[in-house]
Amino acid sequence: MKQNKNEIALLNQLLKQLYQTISQYDLYIMKAKEDEQIKSILQKIQKQHHEQIGHLVDLIQELEGNPVNSAGMNTRFKEFTLRLTLYNIQKILDQAMQDEERLIQALEQTKGNVSENIKVRIKDFIREMKAIVKRLYQAKMDVMKGKK
């Protein structure tokens, strides 16, 4: 039971980070409104994160835990600072890649402190996040080349 409590706490931390990331994607999408292709990519990634939240919520409930349902209070300050720095598509994509890398790091750290069953699921999340980073990087390269 103690292992479950520790796992639930760790998974809830990941859940908070995913909520924060989704909130940040709202801002990225708004800032990318002039570039329909980039906006579409960001919307698809955000949708994928919504699905990941659903999987994490299910996992926490399977462990008989109570999943958090928001990112917490520190999201507003981060959003304010992002509004000041996101002035072009490349900056938006760079920031989104940084967010994904932070999620990957958090997942990697969590992976070492959970049971095998949960570790398998976390590895799936990591694989998905790495694919997202590749998609964002390719979009950035296309923008830099002028292809969009």
What does this structure look like?
The protein has about 150 residues and is an all-alpha fold. It has helices at about 1-30, 35-60, 75-85, 90-110, 115-145. Helix 1 (about 1-30) runs antiparallel to helix 2 (about 35-60), helix 1 (about 1-30) runs parallel beside helix 3 (about 75-85) and helix 2 (about 35-60) packs antiparallel against helix 5. It starts with a helix and ends with a helix. The model has no long low-confidence stretch (mean pLDDT about 90).
Give a summary of the structure in a few sentences.
Helices cover 82% and strands 0% of the residues. With 148 residues, it is mostly helical.
| Main pleated-sheet profile | none
Shape: elongated
Strand portion, in percent? under 5%
Mean pLDDT: 88
Q: Strand tally, please?
A: 0
Figure out the total of helices. 5
The SSE order reads: HHHHH
Helix content: over 70%
Unreliable stretches covering 5 or more consecutive residues: none
Q: Report Rg.
A: 16 Å
Termini separation comes to 51 Å
Structural class of the secondary structure composition?
mainly alpha
Core attributes:
5 helices; 148 residues; mainly alpha
What's the arrangement of secondary structure elements?
Layout: H1 2-31, H2 36-62, H3 75-85, H4 89-111, H5 116-145
